[in-house]
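tool_call predict_complex ligand=protoporphyrin IX containing FE
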Amino acid sequence: MKLPDGPKNPALLQLIQWIANPLDYLDDCAKRYGDIFTLRLSGFRPFVFINNPQGIQEIFTADAKNFDAGRSNGIVRPLVGDNSLILLDGERHKRERKLLMPPFHGEKVKSYAQLICQITQRVGSQWQVNQPFVARTVMQDITLEVILHTVFGLSEGDRYQQIKPLLASMLDMTGSPLRSSMLFFSFLQKDLGAWSPWGKFLRRKQRIYELLQAEIDERRGHPELNGKDILSLMLSAKDENGQPMTDDQLRDEMMTLLFAGHETTATALAWAFYWIHKLPHIKEKLLQEIDTLGDNPDPMEVYRLPYLTAICQETLRIYPVVFIAFPRMAKSTVEIMGHQFDAGTMLTPCIYLVHHREELYPEPKQFRPERFLEREYSPYEFIPFGGGNRRCLGYALAMLEMKLVIGTILSNYHLALADNKPVIPQRRGLTIAPSNGVPLLMTGRRAAQRTVVFS
Ligand code: HEM
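tool_result ok
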């Protein structure tokens, strides 16, 4: 069946635009082709992009059996390994998702509140007045530490300290559009020695694998070390035949959580700090709201603040860090928005374009948190974490982290942008990040130093 219209230029050019400047490219395509269009990116099957909430609802609410999403995520295989939840489909995906979900939801996720505030307070206490720092880097320190705790428990050991810089530097290897090309062009994925980009990437990954394997071996050898962390949970899980997870499966799921669980949140936080300090009226209003809680608020009170929540939502709306959901591959003929699609078609809910629809979000290029206080958006209109059976596993943790990190820092410090250069949304691997990472200055401490109280 004929695919919806889309750009006619050669697939290689389309891919280059997709890598170099994805948001402008998407805006252009939506202007020209409307709610549904096809991109042909060299080396990939055609992708049908859908930016209409009705179409997205049809995809997110369809029976999970109609689509495979893991199969279409091959691009992250070098980062997360073959056994990653992100690459699984069918029953195995369902089973592993069920296993990994509880630590990230409900009461359990709230138990990380104290940890998040403490890590943030410790990081902030190291700042010197007027000494610039890059928000993205600092936020990555915080979010990486949080996810390491949730995966490994409170093991503060040497191994844990070694994983931190290795993981950060491995992900930095896709830190710009040019470097992100490594993920899209398989011919660049050649190990030409320890100094070649791919060679470096593989060696760092191997070193992380060794550290993860050492942790698995230690836990298997000393079951008394097992606690309530995710590794312990996975170590005690059995499949339908009573078999435990293999070392490779454990390692890939740990890599997945470490990779998916901190970069995205760090980038979202860097964006939030950018907007709060770029637009003084927003900062003013937020501070007034935070101050209504008085000294030493409970973290859950901070979490529930409406304007803070709206700032986090608007941050994830305007430049959604993950700007497309996983492409869903139709397993048989499906109908979406009145179009028939053959088996094998890749249907891609476009988070960025839905978030920029004028009729839903008037003046969509303006940062205006109030829109989230004025109306409620459906789970097909506001979709920073995707939806359906692939909805982000860590959305509750990510929202908790965003609010508590912002709340803790703004209660205690005056910050300012370190320069006035325009910040451009730029590809960073598979995400959209602020081009300069957002340089900030701590200009002073707020009158009362607050600590968050835990009831
Ligand atoms: C602001 C931060 C984050 C954003 C914007 C984000 C966004 C997303 C999106 C858009 C998807 C794909 C959903 C779909 O296709 O329907 C996803 C999947 C996923 N995310 Fe997140 N994420 C964030 C933080 C996290 C955190 C903290 C974790 C830690 C557990 C995490 C773990 C995952 C996993 C494991 C998947 C794959 C789920 C599956 O295949 O079933 N993410 N995320």
